[in-house]
Write a structure and sequence with these properties.
Protein name: Ubiquitin-like domain-containing protein
Largest sheet: 5 strands, mixed
Number of helices: 3
Number of strands: 9
Distance between the termini: 61 Å
Biased composition (Acidic residues): 120-130
CATH class of the domain at 13-109: Alpha Beta
Shape: globular
Radius of gyration: 18 Å
CATH topology of the domain at 13-109: Ubiquitin-like (UB roll)
CATH architecture of the domain at 13-109: Roll
Order of helices and strands: HEEHEEEEEEEH
Structural class: alpha+beta
Region (Disordered): 54-77, 111-131
Organism: Penicillium vulpinum
């Protein structure tokens, strides 16, 4: 008799977390909260001994990580908007946030800002230009031109 497959393993969602040129691939369950997701992201970065990304120091606490989703999933170059980790007092899950398998998610770190806005220094706008994400591009035409010369 073949071993039974776990239902939770087959329903896992793979997400690509991006900051500058760094991408972290995490496989998570749709019922897990965005706060748990941030903890797993921080653990993954620390396990690779990442100290900073593009000059932004890795925080000690996952609550200092902010997640963003593309404004237009078909074109991440259009920018990112912050994902809300709570709805009321209830944590938001990956499924409730509408995150899909293979989706890119931006992340950034809160900067310490003692005395400013009670510690909240991120913009509250839906669309925020402050996301440092460099999407890879494949420039086939330039490579072909160089080979032809």
């Amino acid at each position: 008799m073949p071993p039974k497959q776990s239902r939770t393993a087959s329903s896992a969602v793979t997400l690509l977390f991006k900051k500058h040129k760094t991408t972290v691939l995490l496989m998570l369950q749709p019922h897990e909260s965005l706060d748990f997701t941030k903890e797993k992201l921080l653990e993954a970065l620390k396990s690779r001994e990442v100290k900073d990304i593009n000059g932004d120091l890795l925080p000690d606490d996952s609550s200092n990580i902010e997640l963003g989703e593309p404004v237009d999933r078909a074109d991440p170059e259009k920018g990112w908007r912050r994902l809300q980790t709570e709805s009321g007092n209830k944590p938001v899950t990956l499924m409730e946030a509408g995150l899909q398998n293979g989706q890119s998610i931006a992340f950034r770190f809160h900067k310490s800002s003692e005395g400013q806005n009670d510690g909240l220094d991120m913009d509250l706008d839906d669309e925020d230009p402050g996301w440092d994400v460099v999407m890879p591009i494949y420039e086939e035409e330039e490579e072909e031109e160089e080979q032809g010369e």
